[in-house]
Amino acid sequence: MYGDEIHLWLHHIRAERLRDEARAASRPHRRSRPARARMLRARVGWTLVEVGLRLATPRLPQSGLTARFDH
What we know:
Elements: H1 2-26, H2 32-56, H3 64-69
């Protein structure tokens, strides 16, 4: 019958799509390397921010008492 052939054809299409999804799911994720790169980039960025803030902040003048204890 005509309807049975269409049903079988649709079944084959659906099965092929499911196989493609299964292959895609079984592949190792490539996000691990970029995630590590983002983490490293964030750590380096915050370190640069900290260094910049230390350089931009004026030093307070030291009193004589604290200057003696620095040696």
